Protein 1
Amino acid sequence: MKKIFVVLIGLGFLICFSSGVFASSVSVWQGQYYTGTTFNVGTYIFNFSVYDSSSGGSICFTNTTSLTTGNWGEWRTEQSPWASCNNASKDYFLNINIAGSDMTPRRRLTVGDFLRRDVPDIQSGNLEVADNISASYFLGDGSYLTGVAGSGDINSVQGDGVYLYNGSDVGGVVLAFNESRLNVTIDVRTSGLGDNASWNESYADTKYILGISEGSLDVNSSTWWASVSSWVSGWFYSNSGVLTFNESKLNDSIDARSSFSEVDPYWSSNSSLYNSSWSTELELDWLHKELVN
């Protein structure tokens, strides 16, 4: 039986550039064709077929070509199967038939031009996808996405995000709050006051804000004004819910200040003593003059 020893150069891709156009990737397959210990030298018909299974399966690529082997039975070919064998979820296997005989087993192929994993992919030009793109999220670079169509349901922008697509605007796309997430946040923040079903009035009455009805919040007046009174030491009070200056306290303060004497009692006392002393000195001086004369 004819046997072939094939050395596959792990899909060594020939990347060609011509006038700035990126050429299709091609696979380089090469090996040696021998029978027993004899290397077959000559020209033979080679058929290369790619299957999606190691046995049986479907063919996604096949090509027949004439190759001339070297002195050691060596051969080399360049094939381009990846336009049709491009399903990343499948494994592919190469079957080689030389002169009508299959050279078993099929060789597993490892494809790298369409399957990328855990590596950065930097695209400087336009990236065009004929069908859908599935991703957990899209991360922008500070610009914005254009041409993204709203599909008419909330799944256009989905998940646990703060914003969701709202299709209520006919002919356009409206970005709206995710009410489910917003409601959860509100419930957490107001958990001490109660829940959406009922308010904990005994607790709410001690707070500045409480619920007056389902879904409605109001100021707790008694707690609020009591706190205001303590803050401003009675200078303000509630006048039918309006913060008003306490005129009685103001008037009392004005009266107290207006009754204060601007004459320093200490100075008045010293002045009286000085005046008394001054009068006595005058009298003694007059008496001295009378005695002298």
Protein 2
Amino acid sequence: MSAFSDPDLPCEDVREPFRTLPIRFINIPMDFRMDFVSLQKLLNDVKPKYVLSSSTYTQPMARRPDLRIHYEKIWPIEYDESVQLSKLSRNKRKLVTVEVHHDIVKNMKFKQHPTKKLAVASVACHLSAYNDEFKLVPTKDRIAKQKFGRLTIDKLLKTLRDKNLEVTLDAPPVVDNDDLEEGQVVEEKTETVMHIEELEAKITLKNDGSRTKVTAQNAETREKIMDIIKTMLVEDDGIVGRAD
């Protein structure tokens, strides 16, 4: 048996409930707080096959190039992105049975599918996964509904400037056709970057406005920009098969 407690909690307080049991206790104080330097050292020592990380920690930050994870086999994850962990493993996929808590079933409200002859319902719950046993259980905290939509450059610029934010765009490179060799094809720019200097932040629009990435110096600034963007999106009602 191994018990890991908060390093600030006295060892005797942890041991007290188990004092009458035949368990040998070894006190090894640990501090689980980790910075980028210690994380980099840990990766170099352990050499994991893959590292999954938020894309925020894989991109260089303005004036703080040290706040970045450097590892060859790192898999950056975007916000709200679904990741198939089976791609990281040699094990084949397997079907699992997911048990649904009765309170979730009781509160489900079905709606007609927009294109198929069936009814669908959205659920707000947590997925409990322990020892290969999966269960959908109610959540005590309110789960914010997702929003969707496609942003246009003009609309986003107007919304930001209405908030008295000065925005500049990355200009696409100018290509002189006379400098191109015969048969050479110039790849078109697939993303647009908006810089907000006063907030030291930038917004990157990808896939014709269907993907958005916000980069900022701190969480408060990023949340402020995200709140502005959310006002331009539509709340998801949980119905699948909707038109983009």
Protein 3
Amino acid sequence: MTLASNPAIRRHEIWQAQPVGQFRDTANPSLPDGATEPPTPLSKFHAHNRLSSSGTPATWMTTPSSPTNYVEDDENMFRFNYLPSSTGQ
């Protein structure tokens, strides 16, 4: 067995300093296998089950990216000057 093939000996300098599961955790039989929390039902994420900030059901809207709704700003016309004007206006 080589050093690289033995995870108990091989050091991972970066990963050992991170708050993630370590290879040594797999050797601990008291740790349960599986998810850390039960899965969330998809129904909790569907828009028709959620309310918007106004209290009405949220709806999904897709804006078409056809030429009438899409513009490229080649001349930089959409840039705004947010600095106060020097003329006091």
